[in-house]
Amino acid sequence: MEMCEDVYRACVSCPSHSAELYSCVQQYLITHLYDISEEIVKGNLLKSYYQKWKVYQRGAYCLDHAFYYFNMLCLEKWRIHIFDLYKAQLVCLILAEIESDRNGNFVDPSPVKGAIDSFVYLNPPLSAPLLLYQQAFEAPFLEVTSQYYSKEAALFASERDFTAYMIKALKRIEEEEARVRKFVDLSSYSKVLEECERQWITNQLASFEVEIKNYLRKGDDEALSVLYSLIKRVPPLVEPVSSRMLNYLSEEGLVRGSPGHSDPVTPVDYVDFLFSMRSNYLALCRTAFENNAYFIAAVDKAFRVVINATNGERHLSKSPELLAFYCDAFLKKSSRNPVNYDIDEKLNKMVTLFEYLDEKDVFLKFYSRLLAKRLINSTSSSLEAETQMISSLKQTCGNDYTAKLESMLTDIGTSEKLSVAFRKYLCDHRENTFDNFRIVVLGRASWPIAAQQPFPQPPSVLKQVLLAFEKFYVSQHSGRKLQWLPYLSKCELRMNYLPRRYEVQCSFYQMSILLLFNYKDTVSIEEGALLDNTLATLINAKILAWSGTPAQVVLNKRFSRARGGGKFKLPASIGETENQKDASKATIDAVITDRQISLQATIMRIMKTRRKIAHRQLLSEVASQTSLRFKPAIAMIKKCIESLIDQQYLARAADFTDCYEYIS
Amino acid sequence: MATGNEKPQPLDDSTKNDTKMFSLKKWNAVGMWKWDVECDTCAICRNQVTDCCLKCQAEKVYNQGEKKEECVVVWGECNHTFHHCCMSLWVKQSPKCPLCQQQWSIQRIGK
């Protein structure tokens, strides 16, 4: 080694020898390579190529140390005299070896890897890096890979069911990863895998799209998980596949969850169904889809579709109403669930679902009606829960949304205080009246309470109290006028004429009739003329009976109840369910009126700031401004615009540009 | 609110009304108040007097529910009524009732 260096130095010290040395070494290399070339074909070409290359490379390495400058010469000579000669055969052999490895046979990686490395090494000095390797080997290799796997994948897809196919694909791709590391240059890694994935996954996209629905239907979480681990390898496929899930979920949800599907659905069942559907599929996203954002979004979207699905002639979703009744069910105390232990959980459920609602205004209408009922009848299980519920709604929809609900709660609070103060007032004034009462005074603006029926003459026991209270109230609040709402008033009466002690909970009107019997035995219908329906309820309940003489009623002195305790509740009117349907229809009518007003207000607000605006832009701004409350139908917005034009608040632009102008 | 599982008890004499057929145990009365006014709308802001005035309404929306003083009604000697808020602003410009042009003086303020 040192000798060589000495010789080299001696030669280069004098330039004239340098060229001579170069040509001598070149001559030597050529003869040497001739010998190699003859020997190389004697055995297995790939192996002996690899061995000779190894020795030669080591020689070249020494020579490199000795004369760096000559290194290129060595490689160039090998390229010309060996590589170019055997290139075609070599590549064929390498590809055959790799195919054999793919077929599961054992292949010694060193000669293959070594030969491939030599291709990298032999790259001509002035061309792009890896060019020789890419042209001589990589291109044909990718071609072969594509053919091989396309054949295998097609065969597998036709022979086995899809689950087996997916498992096979996953295994083959993982094997190929290891294989690429073992044999070829790492610069090809991603290209080879891409080819492999294209054959196994991308080309089967249609099957993936079909099968994901089948797996979801069967609830085959494992298969879904395998499916995802394949799909995630090809990021552009995630979206189309997840959108199939969206389709499936919304179809499925609509069929199973639609309120029209299995009428009548109870609010609790409905909410439980929706919530469990959502949380099941989110759990699936977690376990099978690694919480991939596309899949989570698919669940979300599907859910929004299901919950806002419209049916019926009004094109309104039934969900807001059911959700409001669901709230009522868990916020109301009743004999069946005197204490609600899981209010927090239910509240959570409710708020989660609420956020998906498009028609929050419908919900609000129903909710406030039910809240009013709970507060007036003091059937709310806890005011704390009510407050909590309202503040959750406020967080989602803003202050404006809950203002009325809040002032309803406030009214109840002040009424409690007022009742206490009134009792004290009665004591102070030594008014000896009936005193087991609760008086609620509502402010007119916030309560969803309709026009009044006339107040029948109150029984004398109560008349005194009412008058006293009116006097008391005016002394507390100047400038106010009180109006009693008898149809919201409830009483409890004890029936003293029966062997068993019964206490009956009844409406104010029912009480008015019953108290008449304290003074006489028969009551003629004229006396209850205004109260036809009420009388019927009492006869229905067998508390009253027709007497022998026409148009007169008497007490049923043999009244008894077979089941239940001594306390019971009278139905307020006959055909209560019918009433509920009417009420729900009326509520929705009210919502639609409110929407029109709110749309017109929104349009005017926009027009006032913009002065002139294009039709399309106006529509989209209106929709975005109202989106917190509801999703307006385009037809409805148009109708509102028309009506505002009729009222000359706006006009179509004179220049036919499809714009509107504000008229000040 | 019936608990439903109470055993019927024998008649007791604790209430003085027991000689009657029915005796009232409990009563839940519901009333509604409104301002004792002739005209339901405030002539200044055109809102209902039972609602709060236009300005308070807007503030309610934007102030995130911070409650300030309640929006009440005011009666003038002429018996015309307005929101107290609206009238306070009005008298800064003109000391007359906007409806009858009489000198404005407050008769009473709602509470």
TrEMBL record, chain A:
Keyword Iron: no
Keywords: Isopeptide bond, Ubl conjugation
GO BP terms, alphabetized: ubiquitin-dependent protein catabolic process
Gene Ontology MF terms in the entry: ubiquitin protein ligase binding
Keyword Phosphoprotein: no
PROSITE patterns: CULLIN_1, CULLIN_2
A GO CC term assigned to this protein in UniProt: cullin-RING ubiquitin ligase complex
All residue ranges annotated as the Cullin family profile domain in the record: 318-527
InterPro entries the UniProt entry points to: Cullin, Cullin-like_AB, Cullin_CS, Cullin_homology, Cullin_homology_sf, Cullin_N, Cullin_neddylation_domain, Cullin_repeat-like_dom_sf
Family stated for the protein in its record: Belongs to the cullin family.
Identification of the protein by name: Cullin family profile domain-containing protein
Origin species: Zophobas morio
UniProtKB/TrEMBL annotation, chain B:
Top-rank lineage group of the source organism: Eukaryota
Locations listed in the record: Cytoplasm; Nucleus
Listed Pfam families: zf-rbx1
Record's keyword annotation contains Chaperone: no
Pathway: Protein modification; protein ubiquitination
Alphabetically ordered keywords of this record: Cytoplasm, Metal-binding, Nucleus, Ubl conjugation pathway, Zinc, Zinc-finger
Record's GO cellular component terms: cullin-RING ubiquitin ligase complex; cytoplasm; nucleus
Domain RING-type: 42-101
Gene Ontology terms, MF aspect: zinc ion binding
Family recorded in the similarity comment: Belongs to the RING-box family.
UniProt protein name: RING-type domain-containing protein
Organism (species): Zophobas morio
